[in-house]
Structures are given as structure tokens and as C-alpha cells.
Amino acid sequence: MFKLENSWQDYELLDAGNGEKLERWKDIILRRPDPIAIWPIATDTPLWNSAHAIYHRSNKGGGHWEYLKDFPEEWTINYKDLRFRISPTNFKHTGLFPEQAYNWDWIIKEVKDNKDKELRILNLFAYTGGATMAASYGGANEVVHVDAAKGMIEWAKINRDLSGLQNNKIRFIVDDCLKFVEREKRRGRTYHGIIMDPPSYGRGPSGEMWKFEKEIVKLIDDCIEILDEDAIFLLINSYTSGFSPIALENLMRTTILYKIGHGKVEASELWLETSNSKMLLPCGISGRWQP
């Protein structure tokens, strides 16, 4: 179990329950579905009715935002020295997973603690680049950011500029992550740290199918082959329903530890605490290997 400390100022999980969560993103309050928050709670209250917008799911899939108050189409929030663009999307997301701040802090510390090395960090399924910015801010010599969605790559570039990292070496690549790792293996390139956040299902830029339980072992095995002999970590995040920290730790032990032959593995559930009811909202899982 990781030691998790919340250092957010611009983000707050106000409350959760009845299949929803209420969040403050700087000065904007959003109400979104969350299938994990199944416990009953009173939502017809001044707090829940303070939302600027509510996301409604459609029975046909997807959904839409109901805007109750005027607010900007996009805005910026800070996490310590990092800055990120926030914008409600058609798929209920905002462009950032705030629980990942636990990992950002850890990545920054690990990179800073190894500043004597010429660190190359690879971020797969990198989305809008929270972990990318953390690694670059921490002092990595090169960060390679790979995602199949061109729109997410462009969003990550905005976050790079907002965080003042324009002059750092960050390579942004639109590609299928599994194919990219296979090519890096053939090229003989290695990385001192690898981060991955594979989806449950997905498609690459050329229509490549990704299914977590089918592809994850191969991806990990391929990543082991491009880990530098002086590697400092391998980090795996997962939001796949039913995949527990115990299962992730078992997976990492039987792949990474077995093949590398040394180091330690630990996995943990991530969560956010509601400021109103002080309950913990589960927010995916994370596993770490270190030498």
C-alpha cells in the first residue's frame, strides 16, 4: 500500500454518492457520473446544487453536459509548480485525473534522487501528459510521450507550455504504444523509467485493437526488454474494472521480477477523500517496480 498524501489546492472532491461525484476545479464546480460511488447520499442540497454543469449519460451511450452557470470553455489549474488545461469533454472527462498527483510526486522524487544519471523516461498511453510533465520537471534529460490520439498529444503540448517546460527535451509521438515499444526494442533504445496507463479497450491510430487482459502481458514483457540496465522504475496504472491491486502485484511479480531477477514490487489502490463526508472514493490502481 502506498503512502498517499493529497497536496491539491486547485482541485477538491467535494462529495460523492448515488453514482456521481461533485468536484471543484479551481473556481468551477462540476457534477459527473462515477459508477464506483454506489452508496446512497442526499444530493438535493445546496452543495450539490452549486454545480456549474452536470454531465448526463445517454441510454444510447455517451452523454452530454447540462450547463447551469456561465464559465469559460477552458481554464488552467495548478498542482504545485505544474499547470494544466482543464476543459469538459463530450466523454465526461476534463483532461486530468487528479488522483494521479500521488504518482506525479513520486516520479518527481525518483527522478530528482537520480539526477546523477542521464535519465530517459518513456510515458505510454500518456493522455494529456501529467506524468510526462512530472518527469520533465523533475529533471529527466529526455521524456518520450506516446499516445494514439492526436488530440491528446496537442493537449499535452499545451500543458508543457503552461508548465514552462518548452525548453526541456520532450518528444511527442502519435502511435500505437505496443508497436512503438516493439520498434524501440529493434532499435536497441532503452529507458531508465517507463510509465504506462493502458486502457481497458482502445484503438491505435491505424485501427489497432487493444484489450487490456489480452495485451498487457506482452506489453510488459516488451517494456522489460527496453528497460535500461540502470533503470530506476516501471510504473503501471489501471482503471480496468475488476482488476485489483493484488492482481496487478501478482502480474508484475510474475513478469518484471521473474525476468529481471531483482528489485521490489508493490501495488495500491488510489483514492480521493471527499471534503464533505470524509469518505474515500476509489480511483483506480497503481503498481511500481524499483530495483
Q: Tally of extended strands?
A: 16
By CATH reckoning, the class of the largest domain would read: Alpha Beta
CATH level 3 topology of the largest domain: Rossmann fold
User: Total domains, how many?
Assistant: 2
* Major sheet size, sense and barrel closure: 7 strands, mixed
* Relative helix content: 25-40%
Mean model confidence by pLDDT: 94
Tally of separate helices = 6
Using only C-alpha atoms, the radius of gyration works out to 19 Å
CATH hierarchy: architecture of the largest domain: 3-Layer(aba) Sandwich
Low-confidence stretches: none
**CATH level 4 superfamily of the largest domain:** Vaccinia Virus protein VP39
Order of helices and strands: EEEEEEEHEHEHEHEEEHEHEE
Find the structural class using helix and strand composition: alpha/beta
**Oligomer, anyone?**
single chain
Terminal Cα span: 18 Å
| Shape category | globular
Question: Can you list the strand order of the major beta sheet?
Answer: 10-9-8-11-14-16-15
Strand content: 25-35%
Describe the 3D structure:
The protein has 291 residues and is of the alpha/beta class. It has two domains: 11-72, Golgi alpha-mannosidase II (Immunoglobulin-like); 98-290, 3-Layer(aba) Sandwich (Rossmann fold). It has helices at residues 101-113, 130-138, 150-162, 177-187, 212-225, 245-260, and strands at residues 11-17, 20-25, 28-33, 53-57, 63-67, 75-79, 82-86, 120-124, 142-147, 170-174, 193-196, 201-203, 209-211, 233-238, 264-273, 280-290. The strands form four sheets. It has a seven-stranded mixed β-sheet. It has a five-stranded mixed β-sheet with strand order 1-2-3-4-5, with no helix packed on it. The chain has a two-stranded antiparallel ribbon with strand order 6-7. A hairpin with a 2-residue loop joins strand 1 and strand 2 (20-25). The chain is globular and about 55 Å long. The model has no long low-confidence stretch (mean pLDDT 94).
